[in-house]
From TrEMBL:
Organism per entry: Apiotrichum porosum
Keyword tags: GTP-binding, Nucleotide-binding
Entry GO terms, CC: fungal-type vacuole membrane; Gtr1-Gtr2 GTPase complex; nucleus
Organism superkingdom: Eukaryota
Protein family according to the UniProt entry: Belongs to the GTR/RAG GTP-binding protein family.
Name of the protein: GTP-binding protein
Gene Ontology terms describing biological process: cellular response to starvation; negative regulation of autophagy; positive regulation of TORC1 signaling
Function according to Swiss-Prot or TrEMBL: GTPase involved in activation of the TORC1 signaling pathway, which promotes growth and represses autophagy in nutrient-rich conditions.
Keyword check for RNA-binding: no
GO molecular function, one term: GTP binding
């Protein structure tokens, strides 16, 4: 099977991030995908032109950051229909602008839908931590309501020139577009200061993962046969969750595990130099094998490379275990300490099958 060209520009899932000026578009991208420390967010500066960020994870992504005066008509060489997702960022504390922002959002979403009816839409209602809880929830609902109303009131016929195959003068057509968008637009309350932003990105990426059900089924099988409570497949560099076994999904555990991973990744920096000294090739913490000529990573992967692994006993009866799968993916599971002590060998044996299964899925897509 040949995979050449797999990660070329055309194969990247394109995500268009847009929104009102200073809404936080660049912050949402850079803190997650470009390692920007949150303390540096105020110094990002105005985005002057479109910036494309290539990011390799379970599916290769290309995230487009846009300047504040961006309009979808400014896309020249890449048609709007080539994007699989549009993320619209709205600053929830800017009361005076958010009606303009909502108007801009609905029009961009409508254009996106007409260019690609299977486009995914997410609205990040951002800077949530800056408001008190009551006010935050009120604004969050208010913005959702405003988007719905605006979509309802939109002059559909004025979009006719973007929809040669549809009759936007027909009430039924317009109603079905409205119903579709109403059901499909996902709202996320986000802030760079907590895990909400990572969780929002997690849902955005899961929406473009065609292999998600297959990966979830593998995780479920692994957790069941290994008596693990929950398992999460993370993108290592960003800490975004790509898949879970979905058994006892709950936000509190998820938050704990994400925090754990984040802390762990911080201490990991400490032993990076040690590992680099001891191994000439593929250490536990060596940088991801660079895809030469854009070849996928597995073509030049060192099968013997010792992947990173770590376990922590958090509470007397709670253990977290982490295993790296590929340069980009890491599995984190939480389980009873007794189970870990009694069944470690079996769990690690099951893990080899899970790892192979995930790799097989990656090679097939
Ligand atoms: N309180 C708070 N402020 C934020 C958050 N995210 C971004 N900001 C602030 O919002 C301002 C704008 O952030 P940017 O990421 O540059 O926004 P942008 O939409 O890319 O701005 P332009 O490129 O100029 O259109 C900065 O001063 C950030 O410090 C957040 O989660 N909470
Ligand atoms: Mg910007």
């Amino acid at each position: 099977m040949s995979h050449s060209g797999h990660q070329t520009e055309a194969h990247r899932q394109k995500i268009l991030v847009t929104g009102w000026r200073k809404a936080g578009k660049s912050s949402c991208i850079q803190t997650i995908f470009q390692h920007l420390p949150v303390k540096d967010v105020p110094y990002i500066g105005i985005t002057q032109r479109i910036e494309k960020i290539d990011y390799d994870t379970i599916v290769p992504l290309q995230i487009w950051d846009t300047p504040s005066n961006f309009d979808v008509d400014q896309l020249t060489d890449t048609p709007l229909g080539a994007f699989s997702t549009m993320v619209f960022v709205i600053d929830m504390q800017q009361d005076e602008f958010y009606h303009d922002a909502v108007r801009q959002a609905t029009s961009a979403i409508m254009r996106g839908y007409l260019a690609n009816p299977s486009m995914n839409f997410s609205v990040f209602i951002h800077k949530a931590e800056s408001l008190s809880e009551d006010y935050r929830l009120e604004n969050y609902s208010e913005i959702q309501r405003a988007v719905t109303e605006e979509l309802e009131d939109l002059s559909y016929p004025s979009f006719q020139k973007y929809a040669p195959n549809l009759d936007l003068g027909d009430v039924n057509t317009c109603t079905s577009i409205f119903n579709h968008l109403q059901a499909e637009i996902k709202y996320e309350m986000t802030s760079v200061h907590d895990v909400s932003l990572r969780n929002a990105w997690s849902r955005v990426i899961q929406d473009v993962m065609e292999m998600l059900p297959a990966v979830e089924a593998l995780l479920l099988n692994f957790t069941e046969t290994s008596s693990i409570d929950n398992s999460y497949l993370f993108d290592l560099a960003s800490g975004v969750v790509l898949a879970t076994d979905n058994r006892h999904r709950n936000d509190a555990t998820m938050e704990q595990i994400t925090e754990y991973l984040e802390r762990f990744l911080q201490i990991r920096e400490i032993y990076k130099p040690l590992v680099a000294k001891n191994t000439s090739k593929g250490g536990a913490d060596s940088p991801a094998p660079k895809a030469a000529n854009d070849e996928p990573w597995w073509e030049n992967e060192d099968a013997e490379a010792p992947w990173m692994t770590q376990t922590s006993r958090l509470l007397p009866n709670c253990t977290l275990a982490l295993w790296q799968f590929t340069p980009q993916l890491v599995l984190v599971g939480d389980l009873h300490t007794d189970t870990w002590q009694a069944r470690r060998g079996m769990i690690e044996y099951n893990l080899t099958f899970l790892r192979q299964g995930v790799r097989r899925i990656l090679m097939e897509v």
